[in-house]
Amino acid sequence: MGSVQPVTLRWGIISTGGIASAFSKDLLVDPKTRNVNDVVHQIVAVGSRSVDKAQQFIDTSLGGDKTLKAFGSYAEVYNDADVDVIYVATPHTYHYENSLDAIKAKKHVLCEKPVTSNRAELRSLLDAAKENDVFFMEAMWTRFQPLSLEFKKISDSGQLGLPISVHADLSGNFDIHNIPNTHRILDPKLGGGALLDLGPYPLVWAIMALYEAPANGATNPTITGSILKTPITGVDCNTSFTLNFSQSKLAAQAVLSCSINTDALDPGVTIRYEKGTIKIASPIYVPKSFVVQYLDEHGALAKEEKKFFEYVGRGMHFQADEVARCIRDGKKESTLWSHEKSLLEMLIFDEVRKQGGYELPPGVEKVV
């Protein structure tokens, strides 16, 4: 019996910034290096504001591959018949319109996080994706990494008992007093601030550990948020939010935080269970190790295991493999990072911004 040929997924890249470069380089890593034999990725086209910028991206990030098409507009990428799926890597507040244009061109979409500026925009995108019969997913890459899959096995197995408490933080010192006010982290027109830029990462660990916990039954938490704004531009500088899961068999709390003027913690995530603790190493968006501590019946440390993970590339290719398999199988969303989970994320962010009094400038949110 002959071997099954891998499916090739053809990508169009929208935007030429740092995250687009990192993702594109990962697409070029041979899938066999991560024991993937059923899918292959091919970059077909890059779209930017000018042909020169697109070509420069191809030359610097993609080895100057002469077979790649450089387009001076996004529309040309959407309308390219050789492109199966669009990767949207523009600033947060452009995700809605860029994704919508791609969807209307009948292209599948992988959109960077945060997927939109608010929940209403996301609902509109999901309606459009359904109407046009295309796959759509937020690029929550952490959820697909081998470390996360192993963490989920242990967390959901019950061997540590029920989860009780999640503490997770992602912070970064952006030197906010010495960068332009137009920098993405400071500009409210780009959805600047800690919550939308950094917040998805502490949140994804709370969703994995608590929302997805078998005992929770996909029940939504109650949300309490607190925001400290920077006087520089009024975006959120330090944000914390608490999620209480108490409407199911689970009684657990997540305490999550993000800051743009201080460094990250290590470990960045600590999850306490009835019978032990899991500590996730920093950086929490792509950790390479975690520690599992098992307690005995007296609450003393009985055993400690440390798990390490290595692979070729940055770790953004695992989500691309998921996209390829879903499209191959005719699925319109991923089970691991479903539309429902992105909607929950945006529900939480909307509520935290509302409680903290952080409103985006008029016209930034395209659907309200």
What attributes does this structure have?
eight-stranded mixed beta sheet; 10 helices; 368 residues; six-stranded parallel beta sheet; globular; alpha/beta
How is this structure best described in words?
- It is an enzyme of class 1 (oxidoreductase).
- Belongs to the Gfo/Idh/MocA family.
- Keywords: Oxidoreductase.
- Its EC number is 1.1.1.179.
- Pfam families: GFO_IDH_MocA (PF01408), GFO_IDH_MocA_C3 (PF22725).
- The structure is a single chain.
- The chain has an eight-stranded mixed β-sheet with strand order 8-9-10-7-11-12-13-14.
- The chain is of the alpha/beta class.
- 30% of the residues lie in helices and 25% in strands.
- α4 links the parallel β4 and β5.
- The longest helix is centred in the last third of the chain and has 18 residues.
- The model has no long low-confidence stretch (mean pLDDT 97).
- The protein is built from ten helices and 14 strands.
- 46% of the residues are buried.
- The termini are far apart.
Mean pLDDT rating: 97
Structural class estimated from helices and strands? alpha/beta
What is the overall shape?
A: globular
Distance between the termini: 55 Å
Kindly provide the radius of gyration, computed on alpha-carbon positions and rounded to a whole number of angstroms.
21 Å
Q: What is the percentage of strand-forming residues?
A: 15-25%
EC number: 1.1.1.179
InterPro entries: Gfo/Idh/MocA-like_OxRdtase_N, Gfo/Idh/MocA_domain, GFO_IDH_MocA-like_dom, NAD(P)-bd_dom_sf
Protein name: D-xylose 1-dehydrogenase (NADP(+), D-xylono-1,5-lactone-forming)
Organism: Lentinula lateritia
